[in-house]
Amino acid sequence: MNTLSQFRSGQLLGAKHLQLVEALSHFPEEIFTLADTLEVLDLSNNNLSDLPDEFACLTKLKRLFLSFNQFNHIPKILAKCPALIMVAFKGNYITEFADHCLPKAIEWLILTDNKIAKLPATFGQYTALKKLALAGNQLSELPISMANCHNLKLIRLSANQLTQIDDWLFELPKLTWLAFAGNCFNKSQCLTQSNLANRPLADYSLSKVIGQGASGIIHLAYSTNKEPVAVKLFKGTITSDGYPLDEVNCCLQALEHPNLIKVLAYIEQQQQLGLVMELIDSSFTNLGLPPSLDTCTRDTFESDCHYSTQVIYAIAQQMVSTVAHLHQHNISHGDIYAHNTMVDPHARVLFGDFGAATDLTMLSDYQRQQMQLIEVRALGCLIEDLLTTCQEQSAEVMHLQHIAQQCMSENIAQRPTLSALADFL
């Protein structure tokens, strides 16, 4: 993190990355001294509500973070920033999204947790867009022009006021990760009936935090009979992916599968929702790392990470079986990634994190089939990503590459079904 005093002392001359958190209510003009070098600007967690007209002089700026400020509109000056490809306005008060207020080359747009009721009719001009986060707004419909956004790979639409999802959304040729739980037509009103017990939080002694995600915090805990378990406590009424109640319901609806993290009970109290899960053995580690700013939608791996074709086959087979099980229970996962998957030294997989899961019950048969093919594309991406860690040159590698390409076909009808994919593997 940087400070304005560093500017004034000349320490930041030529900086490419800048982060300021100083309760700013006005844009610091000192930033314009970096016009020829600045590529990433993070002014999140301040009190800004607008940008000056001179902002476009930041001609090298690629990524702009303005989350958790006081904006009620998207400043039109952004459209004049020639290099800008990423904009984040999470957790503001935006109601106004005007036509042509963003650069046409934008690839990554984060508008989670605002008050947007309508996207501009011209939204389809953003044809380079790859990643779009709109969860937690007030959208009742999507503009038909959005069907022109053929490069969209990840879309978050949960916790809005959509009354339906149109077929064209499921027909976007590169769409891979889609979430739309918690809308008017599919929002959970109560917990799904389950054979699992509803346990009071007082039944568990919380020991320490062992994990944290967008929707909640996972604790090592002990039951009344001293059994170690993992307790996930949801943070609040809404998360970056949607409502906790929808996530819990998808977990309960999924029932059991050998490769799903086992749910033992749930917690439903007036002020707290939670899940009690089987504690994962310490031999399991994350299969991969989350996407970076550069990879946008694709996972990353440690430089010393290597998976053999035998391991990749085993992982892919288990993941296909798991995803097929979810779809048999009318659930899409929405976030099929290596970083959401755990694996042990014997290539046994455990899969979880239902934050972006969606109950598909309210969809038509056609839309459910399309949703399955969207997740087949995600499995193809997973296989392709894992192959980047493989140092072998063999027929098995070529076979896996061929399968991945089939799964990722932009002609959706040519992708294999989950059943056919299981046979190919």
TrEMBL record:
InterPro entries associated with the record: Kinase-like_dom_sf, Leu-rich_rpt, Leu-rich_rpt_typical-subtyp, LRR_dom_sf, LRR_domain-containing, Prot_kinase_dom, Protein_kinase_ATP_BS
Key words, A-Z: ATP-binding, Leucine-rich repeat, Nucleotide-binding, Repeat
Coiled coil: none
GO function terms (MF aspect): ATP binding; protein kinase activity
Boundaries of every Protein kinase domain copy: 204-425
GO cellular component terms listed in the entry, alphabetical order: cytoplasm
CDD domains reported in the protein's UniProt record: PKc
SUPFAM superfamilies reported in the protein's UniProt record: L domain-like (SSF52058), Protein kinase-like (PK-like) (SSF56112)
Positions of ATP binding: 232
PROSITE patterns: LRR, PROTEIN_KINASE_ATP, PROTEIN_KINASE_DOM
Name of the protein in question: Protein kinase domain-containing protein
Native source organism of the sequence: Pseudoalteromonas haloplanktis (Alteromonas haloplanktis)
Lineage: Bacteria, Pseudomonadati, Pseudomonadota, Gammaproteobacteria, Alteromonadales
